[in-house]
Recover the amino acids of this structure.
């Protein structure tokens, strides 16, 4: 038996898939920033951070892929579409609401709708998460980093 056929039967398929996704995302980042000036560590250009982060993502993907090849066989589970679609809806709603309805409503939407993806979510936990993460987001992004975003439609 060759090592290639052994790897094909013993690979951890979820890790292999995750590693390949990391590699593709990192490669897209490298490709997207290919025309940006790199600069140096002392004088970073606009392409410096995207190149470093994308390169790290590719390296992480390679590591996860290699570990997936070395681990025991684990099949892929069936993709559950409902949670995936709910999360996509939550993110799309946040993107829309952030521009037109303000940060507070957008974060409440993101957390409230996103929590519907987990059938074991409790209303009290969702409410607490909305309050805490909204305050945290206002402090960090709007006040701390100076992101120009209205707090609400008011």
């Amino acid at each position: 038996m060759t090592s290639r056929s052994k790897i094909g039967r013993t690979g951890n398929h979820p890790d292999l898939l995750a590693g390949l996704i990391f590699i593709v995302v990192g490669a897209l980042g490298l490709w997207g920033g290919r025309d940006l000036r790199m600069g140096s560590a002392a004088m970073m250009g606009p392409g410096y951070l995207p190149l470093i982060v994308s390169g790290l993502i590719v390296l992480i993907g390679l590591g996860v892929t290699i570990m997936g090849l070395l681990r025991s066989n684990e099949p892929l589970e069936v993709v559950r579409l409902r949670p995936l679609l709910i999360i996509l809806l939550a993110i799309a709603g946040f993107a829309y609401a952030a521009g037109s309805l303000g940060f507070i409503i957008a974060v409440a939407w993101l957390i409230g709708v996103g929590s519907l993806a987990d059938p074991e979510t409790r209303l009290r936990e969702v409410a607490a998460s909305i309050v805490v993460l909204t305050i945290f987001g206002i402090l960090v992004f709007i006040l701390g980093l100076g992101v120009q975003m209205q707090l609400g439609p008011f």
Remarks:
- The chain has two domains: 8-77, 80-153.
